[in-house]
Amino acid sequence: MKPFLLSLVPLVLLACSDGPSYPSYGDGVLHNGAFTYLCTTPSDAYCAGTENVTTVPGVALGTTFRMAFMQAPGEAPATLDLATSDFLDLAPDGTMHAKRAGYVSVLARTPSGTVEDYVNVRVHEVGSVLVRGIDAGTTLKVSETRSVRAEPHDQSGAVLAGSAAYDWETSDTNVLAIDVTADDRARGGATLRAVGPGTARVRVVLGNATGTIDVLVGGA
Amino acid sequence: MSRSTARLIALAVLAALAVVGCNPDRPAFTYAADPQPVVMTEDGVISVAQGTAVSVVPFLVHDDVEGSSELAIRDARSDDPTIARVASTTHDFAIADWQQEPAVVVLGVSPGTTMLRLFDDGTEKGTLRIDVVAQDP
């Protein structure tokens, strides 16, 4: 009886198997390496400053970012490549530009072209752009300045990653001026400058998505 | 056992051997990882969204009198690289506790249907259908 039961053990183990698997390492689909998301500028709302994140986030359409791949110990170094260039452009310096919404696979290839691992990145349409650094109903005094920055969100309200050059507009330059310096642009922001009493609407634009906030300017 | 019974059994065994012997090995595959997004079109078809990759382990099912066995495929090629491209992976997959088999990555290039042609020692052994599906944002 015992030999019979023992002979069933491999069958039971096989039946309980979860199916194909690689030795697990990193967060690539094949578990053969780790993909890291890299912010190209501080304007990337997903990164605090220039911090890099190990979880590949959803990316906003029209933005840029970079990625890195760290292969499992003992594995051949690999360079990044794309399944196709329909959704992302990959520049020679490794910068990726999100140009179409959808899923795209980023591959880590060895010099021989073999795929070591890959990860799926989702490019989202931007549902809304929030203006951070000032609340609706805030009153600025004439000559007061305020730094603000843009933050892209998807349709469900989740913050999206990616660096972008946002366009900023004011509805009334006699009330509120908007200055965008090189530093502002790098951090995805602008500097609001109160000019005269009244209310002005600040509008930030990223592709087809916009965000607005009304700013009140009181007396000096 | 009578002579006629023995003859009948022998004929049945021969017939079974003949049937198995005439059956070509059957192409099959398993996904090495879940596709993302999931774009299943039909059972037995490799489905992949345009712009994405899916890793599959192709193999041949060899039917035998005592059961079936699997033959690993190390060489798989796309009929139409403008629809789907194929790349090999650096590692074999563990499809069972004691069995490692090579995987290939199928890249969805443009919407359409093509075939994954399976080779063993340079000889074509069968095909698997690949459906590349367009993505709606």
Task: Describe this protein's structure.
The complex is a heterodimer of chains A (220) and B (137). Chain A is mainly beta. Chain A is built from two helices and 16 strands. In chain A, 9% of the residues lie in helices and 43% in strands. A four-stranded antiparallel β-sheet of chain A has the order 1-3-6-5, with no helix packed on it. In chain A, strands 2-8-7-4 form a four-stranded mixed β-sheet, with no helix packed on it. Chain A has a four-stranded antiparallel β-sheet with strand order 9-11-14-13. Chain A is elongated, with a radius of gyration of 24 Å. The relative contact order of chain A is 0.17. Chain B has a single domain, classed as Immunoglobulins (Immunoglobulin-like), CATH 2.60.40. Chain B has one helix and nine strands, in the order αβββββββββ. Chain B has one helix at residues 3-22; strands at 26-31, 46-49, 53-64, 67-72, 75-78, 84-96, 99-108, 112-120, 123-133. In chain B, the strands form two sheets. In chain B, strands 1, 3, 4, 6 and 7 form a five-stranded antiparallel β-sheet that branches. In chain B, β3 (53-64) and β4 (67-72) form a beta hairpin. At the A-B interface, α1, β7 and β8 of A face β3, β6 and β7 of B.
Which helices and strands appear, and what pairs or packs with what?
The complex is a heterodimer of chains A (220) and B (137).
Chain A: H1 2-16, E1 33-38, E2 59-60, E3 64-71, E4 79-82, E5 88-90, E6 96-98, E7 102-109, E8 115-124, E9 128-132, E10 139-141, E11 145-153, E12 167-170, E13 176-179, H2 182-186, E14 189-194, E15 198-206, E16 209-218
Parallel strand pairs in A: 2-8, 10-16
Antiparallel strand pairs in A: 1-3, 3-6, 4-7, 5-6, 7-8, 9-11, 11-14, 12-15, 13-14, 15-16
Chain B: H1 3-22, E1 26-31, E2 46-49, E3 53-64, E4 67-72, E5 75-78, E6 84-96, E7 99-108, E8 112-120, E9 123-133
Parallel strand pairs in B: 2-9
Antiparallel strand pairs in B: 1-3, 3-4, 3-7, 5-8, 6-7, 8-9
